[in-house]
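Lecture 7 notes: from sequence to structure.
We start with the chain below.
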Amino acid sequence: MARLFWVIMALVFSGAAQAATVVPEYYVMENGSNSRTVSYVDDTYAVNGVVDPNASIPGSRLLFGSGALTDGHIATKNVHFDRVADGLDSYVGWYQRTPDITFVFDQAYDFTSVTFYFDAGTTFVPGSGAPEAVAVRGVGEYEVNFDPRTQRGPFAFTIDLTGISESALNFDITTSRDWVFLSEVTFEADVPAVPLPAGGLLVLSGLGALMLYRRRR
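Predicted structure tokens for the same chain:
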């Protein structure tokens, strides 16, 4: 019991960092595209809770808001069946473009990773497929190892960001296909441990006093 008490106290007062998911305050990018029959724009993109008029315009510049890429919904079906089977609109899609996205946070974080949730492509959208690489501006380019002969549907691509401490991150997505589809982007970072509230400190103090009393007896 004594050992447990001192382990807890060390964690409380050490301020040790712990891994956590951090959500951007907003992201900036060129809006998605339309096909002949379907729109793949980020139509939920909103600034301070108000949908941006540019959210419905293909190729428009989206500023200071957030939408489909950070709404917490990760697609589990390809871009065709996500819409047809469930009536959802999880993906943003770009046609013959290199998406350039900047995510801005409320402070600088010590990042550990970022994960992109892409669609591998579908025959229902000719020319769709996985991207070739994702570049982290100022850091490097990371090849997306994806084999279309053996892999299908949505997939996650994670980049190690250990050692990067920033309040904003910029990414360029390159592809040799006509279409690239993205449903979500998530970030992990080391954040300071939350201090124990005053009531919790009183409980620990009482526990320490009880242990001292038992030792004296």
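Points to note: The chain has three helices and eleven strands. The first strand starts at residue 17 and ends at 22.
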